[in-house]
Design a protein that fits this description.
Blueprint (H helix, E strand, L loop, with lengths): L8 H4 L5 H12 L10 H13 L10 E9 L15 H9 L4 H9 L3 E7 L9 H4 L18 H20 L4 E9 L1 H13 L3 H4 L9 H18 L6 H8 L2 H15 L4 E3 L2 H13 L7 E3 L6 H10 L15 H19 L5 H6 L14 H4 L1
Parallel strand pairs: 1-2, 1-3, 3-4, 4-5
Helix pairs in contact: 2-3, 3-15, 5-15, 7-11, 7-12, 8-10, 8-13, 8-14, 12-13, 13-14
């Protein structure tokens, strides 16, 4: 098997159909509710219509939450509230219905798929359908060593590609993408800082569990040291993911790229998915046209990444818990936009005439309705 080159995706990914989007915009102008009255919902519906290549837009019937799980050994430095090797406890809690994403997904009727790309736990602790995809146990401590070997990074990216194909083939029409990780925000912030050319202090946040000041300083130092290892490999996305990413991040990057190839829209959740989006954009500049930013988490690295991706978040509630919960909160907006665009009737011809400049019955001198048409 030849080595995977993520740059090849640049030739495989096309933008959503601009002609369909124009048709959707023209149809929107004919609806009984005036253009602009629905605010950003109009833009969402037109974007989704272009992604589906359908006018009117189809309802979002088969969404799915996809969560990539992994442990990052950098957490041993005390950069996270949770200890290294405990991400499997988050996975178990989601499965048992005790996490925010579990509650929201159950309420919305959306299935949740969890993929163990790099958890550091005994496989027997979790169901086989979750652990069977594992690339390796945990990621290396990125401030002093590579997160993965290059071969493992490629295997993880191929895993993400294969899973995107599975979802598209099964009829999934929109993915809510998130992570279940310990130490993942440190790796994500390192990727963002490296790709945006910024210092560690600019991208260091407090994570989903809101670390204290001492932990923040340790996290900042870890990102600073990891950046020294990231900068020499910026020219190759797989090498970058191997150096300072992790199996879960590499798999998520492959998933994002292949989702764009398969024209399957994705809602990004937090800083981890945004960082992977930044890596994917570096490989294929059109890929962000297939994504939405679900919400702002308050993580500076996420804001930096979304700015570079030119994605405006749908929500800003400061939900920092991760695990796809914030992006799942945005799903009802996307569904509402599609339902309104498809369900609202068009104006009748008599209503359009009445709304025109000559609705009072006056005709400009020397001009007839026929000549104006």
């Amino acid at each position: 098997m030849s080595r995977l080159n993520l740059d090849d995706f640049s030739d495989l990914i096309e933008r959503p159909d601009s002609g369909v989007r124009r048709d959707a915009e023209e149809r929107r102008e004919r609806l009984v509710v005036p253009p602009g009255a629905l605010g950003r919902l109009d833009q969402l519906a037109e974007w989704l219509s272009a992604a589906q290549a359908a006018v009117p837009v189809r309802a979002v019937e088969n969404p799915r939450v996809v969560l990539f799980a992994g442990d990052h050994r950098v957490a041993e430095l005390g950069v996270s509230v949770r200890e290294y090797g405990t991400a499997h406890e988050l996975v178990r809690a989601v499965l048992e219905g005790g996490r925010p994403v579990s509650v929201l997904a159950r309420r919305a009727g959306v299935p949740v798929r969890i993929v163990d790309a790099g958890l550091d736990c005994d496989p027997e602790l979790l169901p086989e359908e979750i652990v069977r995809h594992r690339v390796r146990r945990g990621a290396g401590r990125i401030d002093t060593e590579d997160a993965l070997t290059l071969e493992e990074a490629e295997r993880a990216a191929r895993l993400g590609i294969a899973l995107a194909d599975e979802e598209a083939d099964s009829g999934t029409d929109l993915v809510v993408l998130g992570d279940l990780s310990v130490g993942g925000t440190t790796a994500a912030a390192t990727l963002v800082a490296a790709l945006c050319g910024t210092d560690a202090s600019v991208v260091t946040g407090r994570g989903g569990q809101r670390i204290d000041d001492l932990a923040w300083m340790r996290k900042c130092a870890a990102i600073r040291d990891s950046l020294r290892r990231a900068r020499p490999v910026l020219g190759d996305q797989l090498e970058l993911l191997a150096a300072v990413g992790g199996a879960d991040l590499a798999a998520m990057t492959g998933f994002l790229l292949q989702s764009a190839v398969r024209r399957m829209p994705v809602i990004l959740d937090g800083v981890v998915s945004a960082a992977c989006g930044l890596v994917a954009q570096r490989a294929a500049f059109r890929s962000p046209d297939w994504w939405l930013a679900g919400q702002l988490t308050g993580e500076p690295a996420q804001a930096k990444a979304l700015d570079r991706l030119a994605l405006e978040p749908l929500l800003d509630h400061g939900v920092s818990v991760g695990e796809g919960a914030g992006a799942l909160l945005a799903l009802p907006l996307v569904r509402a936009a599609a339902d309104l665009a498809a369900g609202l009737p068009e104006q009748k011809a008599s209503e359009e005439t009445a709304a025109g400049p000559d609705s009072a019955g006056e005709q400009p001198s020397g001009e007839t309705a026929a000549t104006r048409d």
